[in-house]
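Page 42, continued from yesterday. The earlier attempt failed because a stray header line got pasted into the input along with the sequence. Redoing it now with the clean sequence only.
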Amino acid sequence: MLLKDKTAIIHGAAGHLGRSIATTFAREGAKLFLAGRTFEPVLTLMKSLDADAAQVDALDEMSAEEHAERVIDLAGRIDIGVNAVSIRGDLQGQPLIDMSVDDVLAPAETGIRTNFVTARCCMQDDSQPRWCHPDAVFDICGPFRSGPRLPPDGRI
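This time it went through. C-alpha cells are written below.
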C-alpha cells in the first residue's frame, strides 16, 4: 500500500478524474477527505469509499482554508492535496467569432485560481516541508514528513 498513513484532500472528487484518483488512493491506503462544490455526488462517492466528505468551492479561499483546517484537526496533517476541479464556464464548441476575450480567459483564470487556492490551503501545517508542481495537469501538492522532495531542477 503506497499511501498507507498518508492523508489526502481531493478537490473536485466527484468528477471523472477526481473519482478515479480517490478510488486509487483508497486502494493504496490513504485516509481520504473528499471535497466538491456539489455535495451530493461527493457524498455518494464517500459512501463507496472509507472517506470523509465536505462541500467546498475551490474558488472560495475561505471555504477551502476552513476545510483544510478541519482536516488538520481530524487527521493531524495533510500529506497530499489534489486539484481535480473541472473548469466551469468554458465555451467549447462555440465559434471563436462569437466569443469575447472574457469568454476565452475565464477557463484559464478559473484553473489558475483553483490551483492556487487548493495548493495553498493544503500547506497550512507550518511544521511540514512543502512541495508543489504547478505545471501538472492537476496539482498534486503535499507537505510530507518524509517522502518526495523536489530535486534542484524542480522536476518530479
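Notes: Confidence is low (pLDDT under 50) at residues 133-139, 142-151.
Reminder to self: strip header lines before submitting.
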